[in-house]
Amino acid sequence: MTDFEIVARDGVDQLGEGPLWRVADQSLWWVDIVVPALNRLTVATGVVERWAMPEPIGWVVDRAGGGLLAGFRSGIAALDPDSLAIDFWVAPEPDRPHNRLNDAKVDATGRLWFGSKDDRDLDDSGALYAMGSDRQPKRHDDGYRVANGPAFSLDGRFLYHADSGRRVVYRFAVDEDGALAERTPFVTFDPAWGYPDGMTVDAQNCLWVAHWGGGAISRFDPEGRRMQTVALPATNVTSCTFGGAGLDRLYVTSAAMTSPGTPADGALFVLDVGVGGRPATAFAG
After folding, report:
1. Cβ atoms within 10 A of the Cβ of 139, count?
2. CA–CA separation, 169 vs 220, rounded Å?
3. In this structure, are residues 95 and 247 in contact, taking their beta carbons and an 8 Å threshold?
4. 178 conformational bin, left if phi > 0, alpha if psi -120 to 50, beta if neither
5. CA-CA distance, 265 to 253, in Å (whole number)?
6. Which of 1, 5, 7, 10 has a CA positioned 20 to 30 A from the CA of residue 255?
7. How many CB atoms lie within 10 A of CB 148?
8. Alpha carbon distance 257, 96 (integer Å)
């Protein structure tokens, strides 16, 4: 049995996503996409702060130059975590007005990888992008129902990315310039598992994947074999990242929206899974 705690706070997330552990201030940041809001847990005090955002926000990542980078519905922006000032940089999909950005991670080189989805859930118009310090997004893959959860193998040779709507986690080989080989299915979710959502790689090179509609989080080895599943009292488990002083706690987000009413829908969970992670890389731009 894996131990977990629920972080005490007022309220829950309608669509909690995008957890980021910031080593600099020993805090966990995450978003509530649809409210929309940005959250921060300061671990030393247990205080959770929440700030309203001007439009749906899919994720935040660290910037090497300071502050955060955020994925809003209308595009990518620099976000000052102290003043909450927002400086919009680029709209990756001006040709897809019904899409929004949905999930993102930074690879070991400082390159941002992010996905998108049709906000109406009507078209397979989601895509996978990468953006370097030149701030010019490049579309690498297309035709997703719900693009979700970029994550990277420890050696940087593989990118994991899900199409949640198709219940498939794909794996791409990546070269040093960021070019992707053809995608291959890595894990296909059984319908009883729900849908693959956000993900992270641990210090033993295994992939942890959240189960939307499945009330759990699972660990897969580098061959795609399921090693462990942890049930949680929330139907829609959305994403995860390692944090804490020793990067040995797994923080897991969830969503209250569309849930049938399980006890901890929309909660933030903290798990001891017996393995740690690695610090998040900051965006190079």
Report:
1. 12
2. 11
3. no
4. left
5. 10
6. 1
7. 28
8. 25
Q: What angle do CA 103, 8, 272 make, to 5 degrees?
A: 65
Query: Which tokens belong to 112?
Result: 């941002």
**Residue in the block written with tokens 């193998």:** 153
For 54, the token pair is 């001007």
pLDDT surpasses 90 at 2: no
| pLDDT tens column, 216-260 | 999 999 999 999 999 999 999 999 999 999 999 999 999 999 998
Query: What's the CA dihedral at 261, 264, 265, 268 to 10 degrees?
Result: 180
Active site residue 107: no
Total number of residues shown for the chain: 285
Return the number of other C-beta atoms located less than 10 Å from residue 58's C-beta: 23
Q: CB-hemisphere CA count at 13 Å for 265? A: 16
pLDDT category at 45 given cuts 50, 70, 90 is very high
- The active-site residue out of 62, 107, 118, 197 is 197
